[in-house]
Amino acid sequence: MTLDCDSTVVYALGIESTYLLTAEQMGVDSPFNTYARTGLPVGPICSPSKAAMEAALYPDTTYIEQNYLYFCSGDPEKKELVFSATLPEHEEAVATYRPMWEAYEAAQKANPSPTPAP
């Protein structure tokens, strides 16, 4: 199956992280595009933190017991993730949170953060 992971496409495009990718962006021809290619990308897209490596080595058994297979961003202000066990649950979560992502991105475009001086 494809992983359909936005962050690998963001990496492939070399753009700033976003909650909303366009269909054109998701179609980019790249070995990192997990919408177009099955399995894992050809290499890492970042260096994992110590906490991320520990989480991979010692996963939260609650998540394993729930059989979660999907996740999406939740409320952008809270920087949370929402986990789902089935594709219909995942699609419902995406439909629930998409308006929040759209509002957040519109607010970011309307009031961009100042770029720090080098």
In short:
The chain has five helices and two strands; from the N terminus they run ααααββα.
Care to describe what's here?
With 118 residues, this protein is mostly helical. The chain folds into two domains: 1-46, no CATH class; 48-112, no CATH class. It has helices at 6-13, 23-26, 50-57, 61-65, 87-110; strands at 70-73, 81-84. The protein has a two-stranded antiparallel ribbon with strand order 1-2. The longest helix has 24 residues, at 87-110. The chain is globular, with a radius of gyration of 16 Å. It starts with 5 loop residues before the first helix and ends in an 8-residue tail after the last helix.
Termini, distance in Å? 43 Å
Largest sheet: 2 strands, antiparallel
| Beta-strand percent range | 5-15%
Average predicted local confidence, pLDDT: 90
Provide the number of structural domains: 2
Q: Structural class of the helices, strands and pairings?
A: mainly alpha
Overall geometric form? globular
Global Rg: 16 Å
The helix count comes to 5
Cross-sheet strand order for the largest sheet:
1-2
Record field, number of beta strands: 2
Core attributes:
single chain; 118 residues; mainly alpha; two-stranded antiparallel ribbon; 5 helices; 42% helix; 7% strand
Topology (elements, then pairings):
Elements: H1 6-13, H2 23-26, H3 50-57, H4 61-65, E1 70-73, E2 81-84, H5 87-110
